[in-house]
Amino acid sequence: MEQVYSDIIQFRGSHYDFGRMQGELLKDSPILPNRKKQWGAKRRYHFTIDEQEVKAAIMQFAPGIWDELEGLADALGWNIYDAVREFGGYYLEYGRSGCSIFTGSDYMIRNYDNHPASYEGRYMLHQPTDQGYAMVGPSMQITGRIDGLNEKGLAVGYNFVNRKKSGSGFVCNMVGRIILEACASVDEAVAMLKEIPHRHSFSYVLLDKLGATYVVEASPRRVDFHQSNTCTNHFDKLTEENRYRMDESMQRQQVMQRQEKDLVNGYEAFRMMNDMDKGVFSSKYGAWAGTLHTSAYFPKEMKAWFSIGGDQKPVIIDFGKWLAGERVMIRQIKGKLDASTPFVNMSNFANPDILI
Predict the structure, then answer these.
(1) Does 282 fall in a domain?
(2) What local confidence, expressed as pLDDT, does residue 356 receive?
(3) What is the mean pLDDT of residues 43-58?
(4) Nearest-10 Cα torsion for 144, 146, 149, 151
(5) According to the model, what pLDDT value does residue 307 have?
(6) Does the residue 19 lie in any domain?
(7) φ/ψ of residue 211, rounded to 5
(8) Which residues of 121-143 are buried (b: 16+ CB within 10 A; e: fewer)?
(9) Based on the structure, what is the number of domains in the chain?
(10) Distance CA 225, CA 237 (A)
(11) Confidence check: pLDDT of 171 > 70
């Protein structure tokens, strides 16, 4: 078993200062050296971007993120081009993954499935003082979010479907961040997802305080949506975008659908997703499909739950109290995985070929 953890990072202030703070933390972190080794090992990191194209896209949807990128660049001593290439969430390739999402009228429970060495181990709370909404949730590629809840009570999660026939646009984690940054409701998020350029094919699951769940199926070519309370790794409407093999994805969805009639509340739903004997949690870490975290968001209560690994009790973050000025007193969220690889925030990898 591998002992792992996520650092809780809290910040109140402008996007630029938020970026500078993160840059200072990254100077002393193994995250960037590990990423450099991983990308270099597979020769995938040598791609080019059009800086002005990326800037125009960010400024259209969530301009505060550009200020964050400038803060990161300044703190790290990088030029803005390198910061945008590393943290801009545009054009970057995305590996395989699993993931399952189940919702009720007042909660969203999400299993994030991937390889441990893909995971940054950063759980973020940011309350901006310049523009955009405050949010809580785990990061990906520093500026992106894997899932999260914002101050308006909008919760977002996403599931991988396909990276074939990719297009010019944002990758999933930056799409998630933009939605949390700029949208106050499910309706606003659906409208924005229709406008955002998408790099790959993903399902985006949305829940707000009104209690209706929408699954938005987005590809570089088309976007559609429907109401559903279960989502895994295949499209129900844009079926032409699905991968050839969907058996495992459909099986996880059916497992959730069979058990939902017996669920009384959000905690029981959390247990369905996180307990290792319920059929949804996965230990397939070597296949990029092991459950790294289980997150839960309660828009009406403005609370977020989070756990790492299986059979865990959730750490409860009272986001409403945090928005009112209270600090979260926990510094790290700890867990363990049936894997041989730690998260990239924990130590320098001796073998750069473990991932990507």
Answers:
(1) yes
(2) 46
(3) 79
(4) -10
(5) 98
(6) no
(7) 95, -5
(8) bbbbbbbbeeebbbbbbbbbbbb
(9) 1
(10) 8
(11) yes
Residue 120's domain is classified under what CATH number?
3.60.60.10
Mean pLDDT (whole number) for 215-219: 98
Q: Looking at residue 190, what is its pLDDT?
A: 98
Give me the helix-helix angle, 51-61 and 64-76, nearest 10°.
Answer: 130
**Does residue 319 lie in a domain region?**
yes
Bridging pattern class, strands 100-104 and 289-298: unpaired
Q: For 258-277, what is each residue's pLDDT tens digit?
A: 999 999 999 999 999 999 99
Instruction: Give backbone dihedrals phi and psi of 272, rounded to 5 degrees, phi first.
Output: -60, -40
Q: List, for residues 233-266, the tens digit of each pLDDT value.
A: 999 999 999 987 899 999 999 999 999 999 999 9
Name the helix (H) or strand (E) containing 291: strand 289-298
What confidence tens digit (pLDDT) does each residue in 98-116 have?
Answer: 899 999 999 999 999 999 9
The CB density around residue 187, as the number of other CB atoms within 10 Å, is 14
Angle of the 172-182 helix axis to the 186-195 helix axis, nearest 10: 130
Residue 65, classed as helix, strand or coil, is: helix
Residues 1, 337: contact at Cβ < 8 Å? Answer: yes
CA quadruple 105, 148, 322, 263: dihedral positive or negative? Answer: positive
* Angle, alpha carbons 23-27-29 (nearest 5°): 105
Does residue 81 belong to any structural domain of this protein?
no
For the segment 9-29, what is each residue's pLDDT rounded down to a tens digit?
999 999 999 999 999 999 999
Residues β-bridged to residue 183: none
pTM for this predicted structure: 0.96
Q: Which domain holds residue 294?
A: 2-12+94-340
Tell me what the pLDDT averaged over the chain comes to.
Answer: 94
Which of 327-356 are b and which e, b meaning 16 or more Cβ less than 10 Å from the residue's Cβ? ebeeeebebebebebbbbbbeebeebebbb
Instruction: Tell me the C-alpha distance between 116 and 306, whole Å.
Output: 16
Q: Which amino acid is at 280?
A: V
